[in-house]
Amino acid sequence: MATVVADIAERDAPVERLARIWGTPPGLLGTLTSVDHKTIGIRYLVTAFAFLLLGGLEAGAMRAQLTHGDTHWLSPEAYNQFFTMHGVTMLFLYASPVLSGFSNYLWPLMIGARDMAYPRVNALSYWTYLLAGLLIYASVLVGQSPDGGWFAYVPMTGAAYSPGRNIDFYTVGLTFLGFSTTVGAVNFIGTFFCMKAPGMSVNRLPVILWGTLSSSIAAVVFVPALTVACVLLYLDRHVHTHFFDAATGGQPMLWQHLFWIFGHPWVYIVVLPAIGIASDIIPTFCRRPLAGYTFVTLSTIATIMLGSGVWVHHMFATGLPQMSTSFFSAASMTISLTSGVSVFAWLATIWYGRPQFTVPFLFMCGFIILFVIGGVNGVMTASVPFDQQLHDSYFVVAHLHYVLLGMNLFPVMGAFYYWIPKMTGRMLSERIGRWVFWLMFIGANLTFFPMHITGMLGMPRRIYTYASGLGWDTSNLVITIGAATFAAAVLLFLIDVVRSRFVGPLAGANPWDAPTLEWSVSSPPPPYNFAVIPTVRSPYPLWESRLGERPASVLDAGPALDDGRETIGTDALDGIPVAVLQMPEDSPWPLLLAIALAWVSLALVFAAWSWALIGVGLTAASMIGWLAPAAMRPVRAESAGSDERVPTTRGPL
Amino acid sequence: MTASHAQPIGASRDAEHASGRWAMRLVITTEACFFGYLLFSYWYLAAFATRWPPSDAQVSLHLSLPNTGILLASSALLIWAESGIRNGRIGQLRTGLALTTVLGAVFVGVQFVEWSRLTVTPSGSLWGSLFFTITGFHVAHVCVGLLMLLVVQLGAWRGAFTARRHGYVSNVGLYWHFVDVVWLAVFTSLYLVPVLNR
Amino acid sequence: MSGSPSIFAPAGVGAGQIASLGWLLTIIAAAVVVIVGGLLIAALARPRRDRSHEVMRGTEPASATRWIIVGGLVVPACVLVGTFVATVLTGRAVAAPPTPPVATIEVTAHRWWWEIRYRGATADQSVLTANEIHVPVGGAVRIDLASEDVIHSFWVPQLAAKTDLIPGQTNTMWIEARTAGVYRGECAEYCGLQHAQMNFVVVAESPAAFAAWLAHQREPSVAPTDSLALEGRAGFAGHQCAACHAIEGTTSLGRIGPDLTHLASRRMIGAGLLENTPANLERWVVDAPSFKPGVGMPAEPIPLAGRPAVIAYLESLR
Questions:
Q1: Which CATH class is domain A34-503?
Q2: pLDDT, tens digit, for every residue of C149-202?
Q3: Smallest CA–CA separation between C47 and chain A, in Å?
Q4: Fold (CATH) for B62-196
Q5: Are A280 and A208 in contact (CB under 8 A)?
Q6: Domain range list for chain B
Q7: What is the ipTM of this complex?
Q8: pTM of the shown model
Q9: What architecture does CATH give domain C227-315?
Q10: Which end of chain C is more exposed for a tag (fewer CB within 10 A), N or C?
């Protein structure tokens, strides 16, 4: 077994060679073939934000209709498509991809690596996400957007009651998107276990790593449930199978089980990375390490494990036996314990720290408050008899928006203000940012708090209109005012982002004096991330000397690994170097495979079987074109001897 | 770049792309869960039926039991092929891969023969829907495996694998064994249990 | 019926039990928000001797761990044990009615109306109506829930929790009204275009009034006596209303739409959409889709001259 030998260099040594090796050529070809995780991460962020805006417009249409009772401006067909697309867009096309964007951009920079474990799979996960989102929105062009709700219960979404293409866009679109989520998750898990810098054991990782790891494992295990549900529904609709057909032995409840076995973990998937972000940003602005790091990481893992066993709480009104509902009620309440641990860890960090009221920190404070409100109204819905009143009323709309805005959007907004300077090299505006925060915080509460009231006053969900005089009118007016306030905040944020590109002050490498590795490189980082691979010995490498510890991390000297696109592979838990990994060059195959899959998907939406079959052929050809060459490359003769550099075979992914 | 010095930075493993194995493990995990949910659907619908298997179910071990043996044998041959390349015996690798592929193709063929002999259809009844969907997805996964075996065989013939570098063979092997295990679960649920309950 | 169908204005035994649980949970929730919010504000605003921005030296105070365990685990766990016990006790209390049911109603949901059948001792003792349920105050009523198309949900917030109507299975619930009144019922599971306008009415009245109502509903339709209504009955057949609607005691036996035998005795039409007045009835009959796009009842362009007769006939069906 040969020992890997590498050239050790100083960080400040010339880097033109590295820049040439890792840089993406300019122009269209470079754009379409790039596998740079930073490029892919920014693409995810921009695309997810665009879908956030679309989802917001859909919400705006709904609010315009519901501000007053007896409004029939939107037809029921249109309204039902708006609320379905709002849910699908926000939950699938914004909430998870935006976190993938941050994780993709940040992970290698945080763990001292030059790229993710599978750079081409990374590109594939983005292109399939973009194409799946475009496919779902292509439904607008034919006026048949999904209209069965984001949860698409059968029998209503079966062929008999949904004869158009609406639900086909849904089933095929989500299956295609599930492919993107799954390959992205595989990339994160592989990176977590293989790509950490030397010395970076798992207890030295920023918490976003733990959050995204938990989400990724959950995605691998639970996305197939949605895939199976969509496949069975598609077959029922087009091949006339009987899975959900009550008259011939099928079970409508099977859909609900499959959907929620996926759907409940999904809501943790879209928040755990963001909660991790909060655990990373709060310490920076409290000028001290996170209190209870071990508690927080354990509670992240516990949340996803518990969250796998509570799906029936979405089905409390379906007539299940009390023994079963009581079990799921208890399990659902137990999850608030893991949240409680994290909340008190943050409170302790703030209490024992020196809070700095920057815009990112304001968003973290807002996050904590909205998190707690969403958590407690969740406990209210976890109680079976009370849920049987609250279920399918606006109370649940209040709950879900408090947890999603609280635990996804607010950390994301803080993350934008925190890390956009790293990405672009320019600061956003603290002044505008404060306006964005307060408008967003006030707007969120004005919009969603009254929904607790209307729900308790008997207003059901998913209604395109309501009669005046039921006591819901005033609340709905306040809700719309809140929504307008919230929209103003988003607009102001957009203005800030655009403005800062031109006039924002230069950020420098570490404008926040933050402790983690991404702040040790320039803003924006060079294409190779690190001129030399660092050795890490604590969770806060840039603060070591000031925390009173003996500085042990080595950041300014390390292996240069500039003989091709190389980075270090380490073992799963302890960061012990194991191999020098050859990373792939830019490649067109991810885009080609994504296009082939989009072809198949589009053909399936329109039930065009021959076209679908052609698409399957194209898919197979793309996969073979991508993966086969590496598997068939003859091996050069290897020399023995322990002084030899022995890089690995080039990985295909 | 001027190097200040060269230094060993850690032992290198079998020069395999270790991260590729994680990818295959994870793909297998997600696909195993896919089949898990398919079989969950089968058992859920069976549990709520008035009688199971229903009267129109056409379950027989005549083809499926030998076919199971064929698939198991193909896995055994693949293990034999892998042990060959681990010890540097390329001929054993090539032979083993070829035989595995042939047996895998026979499995697919027998499955098609069984389907053609059935009179139920996917749209004709719930049992037909379940049977064809589940066995159909399994056959699809076998076909993907056959494609992977063909590619790896081409590689074996071109000298892509040595005793120290045969990660692709191991990973394809992992996938093939997974397809085998899934078949055991499908066979037990769809064939063995109904026949034993008769 | 006035005011909101609020779950905190219970008029039924089940809703009352659940409202008590709801108050407990709401108070606990509010307290947690106030306490944690207060801790956050205190943590942010507490006076600090050292106002520098420098990174803080030193290890984590042991009290931080204590706070995390006590505040984040121990106290919430105790509270949750309490909420779970309250949950289970309330669940048991509402699982069965306090007294044996005095009537059984079979509710079948359709897109987008409610078929109501009171089970009788014999077939001709049963009552078929639509979108309006009567119950005796102080008496429990068992409700069997079924659907023949998609999933719906039966929800009368002031009387009881909701239960879904799922094709292929029959769910059972019960309600017992404590206070006389007219209560709003809603569909609470998205069921398509007119999910928003699939409402119904529950009338809780004295046991004597309930018995009288039931007895009257059992009778076949009132035969019209005045000529206008008679003319209207002919018009009813002529405009093919009988293809969908049944009127007991006549040849109209359609089962696709609501039974109209005692239409005029109902408070609302169109599934809780419009007050049952002659003017509304006329507008509904002539163009139901304009009120409820997608409704199964097509527009029926009865010429102006013919309308008073048809409406007079329908109004006679008390």
A1: mainly alpha
A2: 999 999 999 999 999 999 999 999 999 999 999 999 999 999 999 999 999 999
A3: 10
A4: Four Helix Bundle (Hemerythrin (Met), subunit A) (1.20.120)
A5: yes
A6: 62-196
A7: 0.96
A8: 0.96
A9: Sandwich (2.60)
A10: C
